[in-house]
Write a structure and sequence with these properties.
The protein is mainly alpha-helical. It is built from 16 helices and three strands. Helices cover 66% and strands 3% of the residues. A three-stranded antiparallel β-sheet has the order 1-3-2. Helix 3 packs across helix 11 and helix 13 packs antiparallel against helix 16.
């Protein structure tokens, strides 16, 4: 896990630095902070927020809707390899129990969030109901870090946690696309995204291989890789992103149709496997090239989204936090037990049933994706700020996980 351990460490530090900077700035000088976030780069632009019949490209839109597409592309790459490639971590019986636990880790938070909102009255429920997906998120990087601290890097529960988190992210991408359109839906524009994916797959993948059949030197495929590299996929990605924007689906997901078309390794080595650093396929090459830029993007994502005044704490804060801290562990435990014992799918060797509850506590760290969902679930204002504060407070799940781990006597295992 050498390569990804370094990535996650840098990712975590820069994202936290951006979030802390935003919190301090927003509480010391909120006017200048919000002016910075909504800084207009280009008015009457071809891309950007649609308002009053025209689009405006702001700094917030540039980061959240454009540059974060690369972050979601990296997440989608891990999901794609885990599902599609030989030995993929989300294929076969070995993934069945984590997938069941993932379902529980989404149903539990939704039930707690909406159930408590109903108890607070119809007025509160109507104000916050659109944020039901915020507590379903699991931050892969931070949960991985905390999981290693609680269980030790060699414990099978860490691998289980990674499978759950990556499946959770896959479900989260679907939720964002289906339930949180960024504008009025015009699905015909998705044909541009589909066409871009098909075109680049045929022209950059299938055609060179077709021309190279019966030729072991593969001159056309080699020329395509050396001379054009990632450019055909970047052009297709831009077209796909534009199609998502015009279709009204959140454009940060716009690169997802292109990821499966990029030439990839013939088998998966496991989520965050160290072996990936030695692979030379184009998909892994692109991921390596994006690593440092995405770390910088995540710093600005934290800076532009975590700036919440402490006075904004309210009902949505506690609903999001309760969904994560209460709903996630209970949901993971119940559905994990159903999968492992009722359906007899089993648990990894060396993992106890009680570890499921601890995994649920670790997975309650929503942070990055929860912040993102909060920014699209609610319009800017008090409710959005309060919900974001709940996502930030979910870091408390790290302390909770450590305490529960001590109480349930987890025996750390090193690599």
């Amino acid at each position: 896990m050498y390569r990804v351990w370094n990535f996650i460490t840098n990712y975590s530090l820069l994202l936290i630095l951006g979030a802390l900077t935003a919190l301090v700035w927003a509480n010391v000088n909120p006017h200048s902070y919000h002016a910075f976030v909504e800084f207009k780069i280009w008015d009457h632009a071809p891309i950007g927020h649609l308002h009053d019949g025209h689009r405006t490209l702001t700094l917030h839109y540039l980061v959240n809707d454009m540059l974060m597409a690369f972050f979601f592309a990296i997440a989608a790459k891990e999901v794609w390899e885990a599902i599609a490639l030989k030995n993929g971590s989300l294929r076969g019986k070995k993934a069945a129990t984590p997938l069941f636990a993932t379902v529980g880790g989404m149903i539990g938070p939704i039930a707690v969030y909406l159930g408590l909102a109903l108890l607070l009255g119809s007025e509160t429920y109507d104000a916050v109901k659109n944020g039901w997906a915020i507590p379903t998120a699991t931050d892969i990087a931070f949960s991985y870090l905390v999981g290693r601290m609680v269980f030790g890097a060699g414990h099978p529960a860490v691998r289980f946690l990674l499978l759950l988190a990556i499946a959770d992210d896959a479900a989260g991408l679907i939720i964002l696309a289906v339930f949180y359109p960024s504008a009025e839906l015009m699905p015909e524009w998705l044909l541009l995204s589909l066409g871009s994916a098909i075109a680049v797959c045929l022209l950059a993948n299938w055609l060179p291989r077709r021309l190279d059949r019966h030729n072991q030197l593969r001159p056309n495929s080699t020329w395509m890789r050396k001379k054009l590299g990632f450019w055909p996929y970047l052009i297709a990605g831009c077209a796909s992103w534009y199609g998502f924007m015009m279709a009204g689906i959140h454009p940060a997901l716009g690169l997802l149709p292109i990821v499966p078309t990029i030439p990839h390794a013939d088998r998966a080595f496991g989520i965050f496997s160290e072996a990936e650093q030695y692979l030379t396929d184009l998909l892994n090459h692109i991921e390596h090239a994006l690593k440092h830029p995405v770390e910088v993007v995540l710093f600005f994502f934290g800076l532009l989204n975590a700036g919440v005044e402490f006075s904004a704490i309210g009902a949505p804060t506690w609903l999001v936090l309760a969904g994560l801290i209460i709903g996630k562990p209970i949901g993971v435990l119940i559905f994990g037990v159903i999968g492992a014992h009722v359906l007899r799918l089993g648990l990894p060797q060396g993992m106890r049933t009680s570890d499921l509850f601890i995994i649920g506590c670790v997975a309650a760290i929503g942070f990055t994706v929860s912040l993102f969902v909060a920014s699209v679930a609610f319009p800017p204002g008090e409710v959005q700020d309060a919900a974001k504060m709940g996502a930030l407070f979910s870091f408390g799940a790290a302390v909770l996980s450590w305490l529960v781990g001590k109480l349930l006597r987890v025996e750390k295992q090193t690599l």
